[in-house]
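User: I'm putting together a small comparison set for a docking exercise, and I want a reference complex before I start. The sequence is below, and the ligand is glutamic acid. Could you produce the 3D structure with the ligand included, as structure tokens?
Assistant: Of course. I'll restate your input first, then give the structure tokens for the complex.
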Amino acid sequence: MIAHFLARKWAFFLFPIIFAAMYNSLVIKVGTNVLTRPDGRLDITNISHLVDQIAALKAEGVNLVLVSSGAVGAGRELLQVRTGTEEVARRQVQSAVGQVRLMEIYRQLFSNHGLLCAQVLATKGDFRDDLHADNMLNCFQALLLDEVVPVVNENDVVAVTELMFTDNDELAGLVSRMLKVDALVILSSVDGLFDGPPENAESKLIQRIEAGDESVLSFVQEKKTSFGRGGMATKLRIATQTAAAGIPVLLGNGRTPNILNELISGNWPGTTVK
Ligand code: GLU
């Protein structure tokens, strides 16, 4: 009886430790729709809640990198680019202005937890060039050693046309593979992949997808959520490729309160690709 009680008590204590230990290192990607309100303004309340959760994971000893979109959105809210400015230049201006604002918000929010964050901007070319990739890896490793939270975004000022990632999901996948993390978490404004339109009450969330299973692409809805560049199709493509490289991918809703705590429960409320 006592042995049984002790066994249960041990199981109780070990359970969180086992799952926390499952993820010693993470890349967490947050999309523009998680960071902005429906009218396009930055959602400081949700950003703050995400930073609180990330800080809690850091306190558990998890090494993590944040891949954050939102620069273009943050800039769009600050300035009306002059009419007549061409589309590419407009995006460059908005991201250049918005990235500063975004990082200032992260700096303040992380400092509330006694944490420093750092800006890392990359283009697709940086992953193709061995020297650039090595420099980036060395920088990530040194930042993580110093307990700094790297906040990564595409360098939208120079990433134009062929230098552009499909979206930040692709960037997050490349960073995850470069750092060989234990998992990649992709947070968007939907719970994951559904077997029908997500807004339809009969549609069911697909909880588990095998790495390399392309058949699930048939469930992808064409419609893209408002402000982000990617959609579920690229998320799934990146997720299956990253999972095939041995890194599980967890798709989830960045607006679900305390979603990152569920990494420890082992009961992810989204779609797991592995
Ligand atoms: N780099 C863009 C930004 O910060 C976002 C790209 C994407 O939506 O994936 O606004």
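Residues 32, 69-73, 95, 153-154, 156, 167-168, 228-230 surround glutamic acid (CB under 6 Å). The chain is about 45% helix and 15% strand.
User: Thanks, that's exactly what I needed.
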